C-alpha cells in the first residue's frame, strides 16, 4: 500500500505534519496572495476579483472585503452571490463549502483546523474537519464556526455566536454556544 502524503492525510481529516515542506510552500503561496489582495486599493475591484479567482474555487459572483486571510485557499469553494465584510479568516486545512446567496459580517472566522487534546500529541500534529455552509445563510459579525460544522439553508447566525454543533437551518440561531432562537417566518 502506498504511503499517504501529508497533504492527503490533511484533506482526509487525519493527523498530519503541518510543517511538511509541500504544505508549508502551499500555505506561504496562499498567504502571499492574501497579502497582495489586502494591499490593493478598494477601487481596484477587477484586480481584486482576479486575485480571488486564482486562490479560491469561486462558482459565481464573490466579493470579499480586505483584510482576508486563509491557509490554502484551494480547499475553499464559494457559490454565487457571496459577500464577506472585513477581516474574514478561513483556516482551510479541510474542505470549506459555502453555498449561494451567503453573507458574512465583519470578523467572521471559519476553522477546519484543530489539534489533539493530549499535549504531547499536540506538539507535532494537527488535523481538521470540513465545514459546510448552505444557501441563503447570513453570519453576523464576530461569528466563529468550529471544525466539522454544517450550517443548513435559510439560516441567520447572530453576531458574536460560536457555532459548536450543526445548525438545522430555517431559523435564527445565536449565542455561545450557538442555539436555536426562532424560526424564519
Task: Walk me through this protein's architecture.
- Keywords: Acyltransferase, Repeat, Transferase.
- Residues 7-61 form the Maltose/galactoside acetyltransferase domain.
- Pfam families: Hexapep, Mac.
- Belongs to the transferase hexapeptide repeat family.
- This is Acetyltransferase.
- By secondary structure, the protein is of the alpha/beta class.
- The chain has a single domain (6-183), classed as 3 Solenoid (UDP N-Acetylglucosamine Acyltransferase, domain 1).
- It has 4 helices and 19 strands.
- The strands form 4 sheets. It has a 7-stranded mixed sheet, with no helix packed on it.
- A hairpin with a 4-residue loop joins strand 18 and strand 19.
- Helix 2 (21-39) packs antiparallel against helix 3 (45-55).
- It is globular and about 55 Å long.
- The mean pLDDT is 96.
Amino acid at each position: 500500500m502506498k504511503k499517504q502524503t501529508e497533504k492527503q492525510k490533511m484533506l482526509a481529516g487525519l493527523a498530519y505534519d503541518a510543517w511538511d515542506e509541500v504544505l508549508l510552500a502551499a500555505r506561504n503561496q496562499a498567504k502571499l496572495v492574501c497579502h497582495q489582495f489586502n494591499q490593493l486599493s478598494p477601487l481596484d475591484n477587477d484586480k481584486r476579483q482576479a486575485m480571488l479567482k486564482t486562490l479560491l474555487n469561486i462558482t459565481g459572483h464573490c466579493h470579499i472585503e480586505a483584510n482576508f486571510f486563509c491557509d490554502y485557499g484551494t480547499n475553499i469553494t464559494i457559490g454565487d452571490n457571496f459577500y464577506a465584510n472585513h477581516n474574514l479568516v478561513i483556516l482551510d486545512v479541510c474542505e470549506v463549502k459555502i453555498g449561494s446567496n451567503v453573507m458574512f459580517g465583519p470578523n467572521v472566522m471559519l476553522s477546519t483546523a484543530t489539534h489533539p487534546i493530549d499535549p504531547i500529541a499536540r506538539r507535532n500534529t494537527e488535523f481538521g474537519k470540513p465545514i459546510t455552509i448552505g444557501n441563503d445563510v447570513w453570519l453576523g459579525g464576530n461569528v466563529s464556526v468550529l471544525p466539522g460544522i454544517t450550517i443548513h439553508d435559510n439560516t441567520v447566525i447572530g453576531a458574536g455566536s460560536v457555532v459548536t454543533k450543526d445548525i438545522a437551518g430555517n431559523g435564527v440561531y445565536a449565542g455561545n454556544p450557538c442555539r436555536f432562537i426562532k424560526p424564519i417566518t
